[in-house]
Amino acid sequence: MTETQLHIETLRAQLRALMESYIQNIPCTPRTVIYTSMEILPGSTVANTLMNLAEESPFLQTLRELKVTYDDLIQSDTAPALGNGGLGRLTACIGESAATQNVPMIVSVPRHTQGLFRQKLENGRQVEVPDQWLNEDGTYFFEFPRQEYAQWVSFRDDCGGFVKVKMVPCLIPMIGATGGCTTIYAWKVGTVLAPVAANRERYLRIDRQLYCEDSDDEGKKVRLVQESALSQATVRLAIQKCYEQGKTVMDLPELFCLHINDTHASLMIPELIRILLDEYLVGRDDAWDVAWDIATRTFVYTNHTIMKEALEKWPLWMLQQLMPRTCQIIVEIDRRMVERMEREVQANPSGLNPPLSREELDSMRIIADGRVHMAHMDIFTACSVNGVARLHTDILKERELKAFHRLMSTKICNVTNGVTHRKFLVFANPEERKFITDCLKQEDWIEDMTRLETLLPFAEEEQARQDFLKMRKARKEVLAQYVKETRGIALPVDFIFDVQVKRFHMYKRQLLNCLRIIDLYLSLKKDPALDITPTAFILAGKAAAGYRQAKLVIELVLTLEKLINDDPEVNGKIRVCFIENYNVSNAMKIFPATDISEQISTASTEASGTSNMKFMLSGAITLGTLDGANVEIHEAVGDESMYLFGLRSEEVMAYQAKPGSYDPRKLYESNARLRRAVDTLIDGTLLREMPAPGESDRFEELYHELLYGLDGNPADQYFVLADFESYREAFLRMNHDYRDSSKWTRNAIRNIALSGFFSSDRTVKDYCEKVWKISFGNQ
Ligand code: 26W
């Protein structure tokens, strides 16, 4: 071992001890939030801790004395791979902001040994390899297993016998910037007690893989058992903590708020009612009413997606088989809901105008067609339901949950997402921190991001603009270096860096991005003198392992990389780069280096998006549709500092309401430029540089999707062709405007100055006031 390695070991041990000292028995006053989620993506624990320790802390002093760099120490850590995308990263941002603002919070998540895969690029394709975030012996250095909080959860196996599983929480503290701490309770399987005949393997899989393959019934059962284990363990933990404080289950709503972070944790509702009825309220005549009253005051629910296919509906027979008593309770909740709604239909006690119709009642059923609609159970039971950006919440109120909203008009509210600027600005981008502080001559903006507004006048000052450009150039060099090392691609820093990083999904329209690149490529081939500002198109993100079309779009990007970067006729004007294995760590290199932020989902499909916010606070300028939180970004910065294009959500929804009214083939036939780009998907143009015999039809599926539709869906489901022209036009306008560096830089600084609203500190404050009912600032 070298001396540095020894120092690193010493520091890791010290850091571990320091972290353990933060895990105290959380004070439950006024009310502790138990944020229950299938995902969390906190990034490196070492990085998170370092970023929030005070400069003068003894630990940082030791680190400086031993001459160990932050980077060296961070390199010695792995990041818990406990999430997929937006949902998991949001959970981490909210946890960090709660810790910093001293809002009492526990985050309850499964501790999957195989979280999300690591993405490798091989032969022009994505290959999924396991992400080894745990040590060989299955432990993680910065976690603290707590047997005293272990919980038994139970299931009925197919064989008829009962299975009991001991869930043990491993605690990972997230330290806030002011001494507070949010503790992650990551549940792992301890003991499995099962009858000989039982399907033991199923229960051992509880903490194995996040969103395991669910194409067959056994896969679905594993997922259901995973959700149930998380739900049972969390509810039991809350009850244990009530008694620990000398209180009882009757005090649960005063002590805890159980937050259902998307429907993967919805089973907490029937599980709480079951445990109350069968263990704590036995023999009471009013047991159901008491249990129901407790549940309705304890739960809140956040919806994170409008995508129909992502709304969970479990087959009733499966619930019946694996958790008969819980299932009985769901049936009872549904029965009582229908009873109440029938009264509305028949007697209209709420005075609705017009009265509730039978169709509306049917649209709200928890159980329909033999399946349990989890979101409906949450909405009926929880005391608060929220969407994650204003447009998203409005769509829920006006379309998806219209009947619920009519009936419970104060229940549904909006809490727009946010991101932690301590990680994505102060820590990830020290150059930007210095730039802001040099302008403002103080650092109080770090405590309160809304103070960034005082940066606005500097957008008009030449000196500040020059400083901004210097900082941007330095950060582009860092990213270019990383790309050179990891992908072997040269990105000149005087190119515009145009970036789209997020999960690959058809609704996010990386395909539209590609068609725009193809169009530019073809135009340049025709006229190499074409007047455009040199641009590097950078993309990154993972596609779900079984999502064929999304994986094909990644192949398309990699094909464009080869075609364009090696062609001297065009590579002086455009380049393409796919960054491998997008994650929290390389994200911190990507955001600070970005000029153009691509936020191009079909209007009405992206619930919020959060990369849009990370780009904004890094001073990138958004090229986007009016979707998700882009709407609010636009409201903040105005037309002058954001480039909008494409159909509006009302237009998209109007097309969707009238099947057949949108005709992508007509657009294809009438627009030669569009046709030229789309045709390259099948005419071999793209594969010219890669002679792969028999592969000329590689992208045919995408072509088919755009013009004819796949799997019974209408053609061009996400309106790529409809938005192509206005996207191209907005991009070219932007590309041209970049040359006016004063104008560009002014807008970039305005983006930073107006990004305060998108801090997760504000999000947590909103949750305290609107949802958790915790008086903020009094802790
Ligand atoms: C496999 C089943 C499944 C279904 C939905 C897994 C994961 C989900 C998540 C709820 C999807 C998700 O991550 N949604 C994203 O949540 C972010 C945080 O609110 C939003 O910013 C994104 O717009 C939304 O897509």
Distance between the termini: 46 Å
* Largest sheet entry: 10 strands, mixed
Q: What would you call the structural class?
A: alpha/beta
Q: Treating each run of at least 4 consecutive H or I residues as one helix, how many helices?
A: 31
Poorly predicted ranges (pLDDT <50, ≥5 residues)? none
Q: What is the beta-strand fraction?
A: 5-15%
Mean pLDDT equals: 96
Form type:
globular
Which ligands accompany this protein? ligand 26W
Q: Helicity level, as a percent range?
A: 40-55%
What is the CA-atom radius of gyration, in angstroms? 27 Å
What's the number of extended β-strand segments? 21
Key words describing this protein structure:
about 775 residues, alpha/beta, ten-stranded mixed sheet, six-stranded parallel sheet, 31 helices, binds ligand 26W
Characterise the protein shown here.
With 779 residues, the protein is of the alpha/beta class. The chain is 46% helix and 14% strand. The protein contains 31 helices and 21 strands. Helix 18 packs antiparallel against helix 19 and helix 20 (510-526) packs across helix 29. The two termini are 46 Å apart. The model has no long low-confidence stretch (mean pLDDT 96). Bound molecules: ligand 26W.
